[in-house]
Write a structure and sequence with these properties.
Distance between the termini: 13 Å
Helix content: 40-55%
Radius of gyration: 30 Å
Order of helices and strands: HHHHEEEEEEEHEEH
Largest sheet: 7 strands, antiparallel
Number of helices: 6
Structural class: alpha+beta
Strand order of the largest sheet: 4-3-2-1-7-6-5
Length: about 260
């Protein structure tokens, strides 16, 4: 799927009317401050210099409050734009993973990759159908003194390693992604950064990928989250952002139709 197009800031509601428009020419708060100054001058016994200083301070405070209210509204609109963009990019990542996951019958490359994965998975007694395990990612890895490959599907991680390349036999390890925790391992002077895989706080596997470990960790966490319901629904028209559950079934259906 194509990347979602960013919307301009003006596509989002400001939810603010300038004070100068509702109460010209200076705004309601300034008008109230001027009325206070007029009443103050009739009752105070301060000298003219003190009265002028008090009047200017009241008007200045009123202008500052009006500016703060406008700034708050504009920052809220910017935050809405950022959150909307993040939500759409997250949805795009999930859609991309789902598209690769279901590409077995549509792509010869996906079919070949699935066959390779299934060939090794059978040696680890994995009984999932071949069509349901299209690899999303593959990279070279280092596990202790062994080299090998890491396969990532929508539901599983598979590690195929060899202690002695070509001559030695393969060791195949298959792990379900559900319930796994990924912790970065710092790089050493000779080795790149690695990933420790844990379940229930205990390490069950550790490896060092040829690709950047932080990126792979983020990718694995995105795949884990793909199966969870998306809490944010967005509309491409108007840039409105709705938290899940804030709109009714009819409104949600219209939003999905627009997307």
């Amino acid at each position: 799927p194509g990347l979602p197009q960013p919307l301009p800031l003006t596509a989002y509601p400001l939810n603010f009317t300038p004070h100068q428009a509702t109460c010209p020419p200076w705004g309601k708060r300034v008008m109230e401050a001027l009325n206070e100054v007029a009443a103050f001058e009739k009752t105070t016994k301060e000298n003219s210099f003190e009265r002028a200083e008090t009047a200017v301070q009241k008007v200045l405070d009123a202008l500052q409050r009006q500016d703060d209210e406008e700034q708050s509204a504009r920052l809220g609109r910017k935050n809405l734009q950022v959150m909307d963009r993040l939500a759409k990019m997250q949805a795009h990542k999930r859609a991309s993973i789902e598209a690769i996951k279901t590409s077995y019958s549509k792509s010869q490359r996906a079919k070949r990759a699935a066959k390779d994965f299934h060939y090794y998975a059978k040696r680890a007694n994995s009984d999932l159908p071949e069509a349901e395990e299209v690899p999303l990612y593959k990279c070279s890895i280092l596990v202790g003194g062994s080299t090998g490959s890491c396969f990532v599907t929508a539901t599983q991680l598979m590690f195929v390693t060899q202690l002695i390349p070509v001559i030695g036999g393969n060791t195949v390890t298959v792990l379900d992604l559900i319930g796994l925790e990924f912790v970065l391992v710092e790089a050493s002077s000779l080795l790149p950064a690695g990933i420790s895989i844990r379940r229930g706080g205990e390490e069950i596997y550790a490896f060092r990928p040829s690709s950047a470990a932080p990126r792979l960790k983020s990718f694995l966490e995105i795949i884990q989250a793909t199966g969870a319901p998306d809490p944010i629904t967005t509309s491409n028209e108007g840039g409105q952002l709705y938290m899940y559950g804030d709109v009714g079934d009819e409104g949600r259906a219209e939003t999905k139709k627009e997307d």
